[in-house]
Amino acid sequence: MISRELLKGTLKSIVMKLLTEHGRMYGYEITQKVEILSQGKIKLTYGALYPILHKLENDGDVVTDSENINNRIRIYYKLTKKGMRTAEEKVNELQTFLETIGSIIQSKLAFRNG
Amino acid sequence: MAELSLQQVERIRKDLIRQSINYSHLLHDLLDHICCDVEFEMDRGINFEEAYSTIRNCMGTDRCRKIQEETLLLTNNTYRFMKSIMKFSGIISSALLAVAALFKIQHWAGAGIFMSLGFFLLSIFFLPSAIYVLYKENRGKRFFLYLFGLLSFLPLTAGVLFKVQHWPGAGILITVGIGATVVLFLPTLLYVKIEDSQRKDLNPVLTVGVLSGMIHILGLLFKIMHWPGATLMIFLGPMAFVLIFLPWYSFKVYKEKEYVTFEFIFLLVGVIWFILTSTLINLNIS
Fold it and tell me: In whole angstroms, what is the distance from residue B48 CA to residue B38 CA?
């Protein structure tokens, strides 16, 4: 399991990336997808997911629509045009971050080995 | 794939409403998510009750309220600002009032200034921000409960300030504060408790508890205002609480538990404090 502290700044990018690839998704579906793609190493909790989704909606990055499924209303989230641009920026930013962290870790290993 | 019935979905919805989930479509989000989790558990071959209980245990009590709070903090700048104002003014005004009480007891100069400042912060900053925050977090009956609580508390605090400072009008303010507590706050508290209670057999017990509280608080008002009948009310209120409410409530609620819970210890300590202070007030004023 990856710690919550490490994940904190990356969750928004992860959610936006998933929405870019899958079009519209509902909350439970997002948590399941994250769990499957991370092979169970990342568990997206209710507490982490919904504040992010509502913040994205509030900022105009996603829109919602609803459907009545199994006696309840299911809310689907979908990126707007603005959201798509934000998603691209966020994913690029995350990629750069991961590469930078990777190079730091690698250089430390090289230093140790050398 | 298991599918929840309308009644089962309603049961979960009611539990969420009880936690005052009202922000935008968060209720629908959480309801659907919990239902999906329960259905997933039921697919493992367990029944609804067991599955729902597992999910609730995983989430913990009040988790959904905290999610709503986090969502509000992320999405609403005014809420974030008001929450900070509420916390700061609440802490500072309580500290000022505590210092004022110490200065008053020790007969040091400046007690009045601390008390006035504390009350000023309380009424100008704390009260409006608290009402805003409570309105955002709660709607309907629970909002009114908190609103009435604050509206009863404010004149009461002002009354104490006026009394200590020997300003005119203290009696009216204390009467208004205690009157609002007895007429608005306590009946709303009883209504909310009865509405939220999942055990209808507890309703008479809760009614006795709140009624004994009302009698006691009215007794204190009568005592302060030097009206007749105060001693009897101050005697009857705690007696009804200790001799009827407490044993009845303990019997109903705690007989099913196999161990002594923290709540039970808290209840006992609270009752001892309540009886001791009211007896001391009674003796002192007499």
Answer: 7
Number of domains chain A is built from: 1
Return the pLDDT at A111: 62
Contact by Cβ (8 Å): B21, B27: yes
Those residues of chain A whose CB sits closer than 8 Å to some CB in chain B are: 26-28, 31, 46-47, 50-55, 57-58, 64, 66, 69-75
Asked whether the beta carbons of residue A53 and residue B29 sit closer than 8 angstroms, the reply is: yes
pLDDT at residue B142, rounded to an integer: 82
User: Greater confidence, B18 or A69?
Assistant: A69
Give me the DSSP letters along B179-220: HHIIIIIHHHHHHHHHHH-S-GGGHHHHHHHHHHHHHHHHHH
- Please give the ipTM for the structure prediction: 0.88
CATH number for the domain harbouring residue A107: 1.10.10.10
The whole-number pLDDT of residue B98 equals: 93
Distances in whole angstroms, Cα of residue A79 to Cα of each of A29, A57, A82, B33: 15, 9, 8, 20
Query: B175 touching A, CB under 8 A?
Result: no
In this predicted model, what pLDDT tens digit does every residue of A38-64 receive, in sequence order? 998 888 888 889 999 999 999 999 999
Q: Which residues of chain B have pLDDT under 50?
A: 286
Please give the residue range of the domain that contains residue A84: 4-113
Which among B67, B68, B69, B136 is the top mutation candidate for probing chain A, defined by the most A β-carbons within 10 Å of its own β-carbon?
B67
